[in-house]
Structures are given as C-alpha cells and as structure tokens.
Amino acid sequence: MASINEIKNRLPKEFVENLYNLFSPGTVDKILAGTSEQRATTLRVNNLKFNIQDLMKLFKENNIKFDRIPWYRDGLVIKNAVEKDIKKLEIYENGYIYLQSTSSMVPPCVLDPKPGEIILDLTAAPGSKTTQIAAMMNNDGYILANELDKIRCERLKFNVNNQGAKIVEVINGRGEKIGSQYPEKFDKILLDTPCSGEGRFLAYNPGTYRDWSVKRVNELVKIQKKLFTSAFNALKPGGIIVYSTCTINKEENEYILNWALQNFKIEILDIPLEIKNSIPGSTEGLDSSIRKSIKILPSKETEGFFVAKLRKISSESKI
User: Fold this and answer.
1) DSSP state for residue 81 in the 8-state scheme
2) Is 109 considered catalytic here?
3) Superfamily of domain 102-317
4) How far apart are CA 229 and CA 205, in angstroms?
C-alpha cells in the first residue's frame, strides 16, 4: 500500500487541503488510505426474479465466497471474485442480480419505499437505485425515473427492463422542471444528485478525479439547489426526500441541507441504519439537526457517500 504522502501527491492539491479543513488529521489519513484500496465487489439480489437464500446456495455450490451486508438483507460482499467474473454468470445477464456499490444501496434503504407508493427518482441513470426501489416495493406502485442525458437514459431503460421493474416509467427530461410538471404528486423522492464524485476517487486512477475542481464544485451546488427546489415542489406535504451524493465536501452536502432548512418547511429525520465507516454530518456553524445525516468515508468496503432523510412539513417556501 502506498504511503499517505504518495497518495496526497497524486490527488488534486485543493481537494486534499479541503479534507484537512473538514476532518481531523486521523480521519483524513483514513480517507486518503481509502482512496488507494481496491474496492470489494458488492451486489444485491433482484428479488423480483430471485431470492437471497437461493443466491447464497448457488454461490456456495460454485465456491463463490461472500459476506452478508448487515443492514440490507439482499446485499452481499463477494470475497473471492471480481466484477468481470460475476458478469460472466447467467444470473447476472438475466437480471437476477445487480452489481452495485454498498454505499449506493444506502439511499433506497433510507427512503424505505412501500408497496403502493408513488415514487420519484429525479436523476435516475443508470438505474441502480431505481431498480432497487422497485424490488423493495415488490413491483407494486409507481416509480417515475427521470434522466437528463439521452445516452444514460437508454442505459436506464435497459437496466429497468433487464431487472423486470415493471412499475417504472422512464422519462428523458430536465429534473429542474419536474416540480412544476408534477406538483405535489409523489409520496417519496430520491434525489441522488449529480456531484463532484469525491467519494469515488481512486488515487491510482486519474480518470476518477481528472475533472475535479473548486469551480466545478461551485457549479454543481447551483444545480443541486435547483434540483432540490424541484423535488420539494413535486413532493406531497408529509412526504419524504432522501438527498444523497457520492461526494464528501460540505458545499454539496451539509451546506445544501442548511440552505434547504432556511428556505423550505422541512425537517431532517434520523437514519436508523448502522453503516460501517460512517460519521454524522458536520454541524459546525450550521443547523444542529444536520447531525442526523450520515457521511460514509471511502474505504475498501465503501465508496464515500452522503445521505440525508427529510420530511416536507408544508408547501410553504421562501423561493
């Protein structure tokens, strides 16, 4: 494993400096070490087509070793195979399983969709979370899955069809407009917003951080606020928004929540999951309820992620 100094020298300088402004030196070392780890292969069973008991039996018969994910019964961490090995399996090709990072499974679990509900996935491609939500709902209800990019939207459609998620309607449109097009329609909304992707940085893969910059972060913040406003307007009073990113800075996470609390009638709710490598959201200079959000640190087991659960109290807003 590379030294911490070697990892620092590979990653963007301003990103590393920001880490030291956000976290204790010990936590920064842990994050930097996490960017140099080869991430474990993780997947979930698609219980619209298969079930976890039969999947575990099949893996044991084929000497594929695994651990269960403690907080999600349908998720597995693979011990002795990589993604390209899993992709060769017939159960992968037929949509019986879905390769998905552990951290990515968290937002749908926090959303806690129920059969019969009307759900919006505002920025849905490639469909990992969309299809997870459909499986959790047992294909009973309705999911509107929106994606702006036309190519990514086609990938979303493929995954939805391959997974047998029949309650999903896929649309190709601007997320900022959904709130005015579907006012107060949805019981729950997943806003897994476009972000700078810091939680996915790999020190030895420059492609994971080549496009990162402070300017880009600031541009994304403007988009995230527009998308949050749209989500708020599309949500029924009393409904739930789960806000998530695969980044770890405060600008795209805690500051967005603080802005939302100041501008909308919402409240932040507890997240009743015990997630390894996670810490509470930072509240320094911010609303104390932001501590209820969670920040998952990058490691061998997890990509960096941020997740918050919010309830809409009323339709009133200052925007």
Assistant:
1) -
2) no
3) Vaccinia Virus protein VP39 (3.40.50.150)
4) 35
Task: Please check whether residue 168 is in contact with residue 118, taking contact to mean a CB–CB distance below 8 angstroms.
Answer: no
Single-letter residue type at 43:
L
Rg (alpha carbons) of the chain, rounded to whole number: 19
Cα 234 to Cα 2, 128, 204, 308, 317: the distances in Å are 47, 22, 41, 18, 13
- Which one of 109, 153, 195, 246 is the catalytic residue? 246
Sequence-distant (6+) residues with CB within 8 A of 261 are: 268, 287, 289, 290
Any idea where the domains of the chain sit in the sequence? 102-317
Integer Cα distance of 170 and 127 in angstroms: 10
- Half-sphere exposure of residue 233: CA atoms within 13 angstroms, side-chain side: 17
Single pTM value for the model = 0.96
Handedness of CA 92, 171, 209, 211 (dihedral sign): positive
Token digits for 102? 């552990």
* Residue in 74, 69, 70, 112 with CA at minimum distance from that of residue 269: 112
Apex 121 CA angle, 175 and 119, nearest 5: 120
Which one-letter amino acid corresponds to residue 213? S
Angle at CA of residue 192, ends 189 and 197, nearest 5°: 170
Cis-peptide into 126, omega within 30 deg: yes
Residue 123 is given by DSSP the state S
Do 145 and 124 touch, CB atoms closer than 8 A? yes
Return per-residue pLDDT of the chain as tens, 319 residues: 678 999 999 999 999 999 999 999 999 999 999 999 889 999 999 999 999 999 999 999 999 999 999 999 999 999 999 999 999 999 999 999 999 999 999 999 999 999 999 999 999 999 999 999 999 999 999 999 999 999 999 999 999 999 999 999 999 999 999 999 999 999 999 999 999 999 999 999 999 999 999 999 999 999 999 999 999 999 999 999 999 999 999 999 999 999 999 999 999 999 999 999 999 999 999 999 999 999 999 999 999 999 999 999 987 765 5
Q: End-to-end CA distance of the chain, in Å?
A: 49
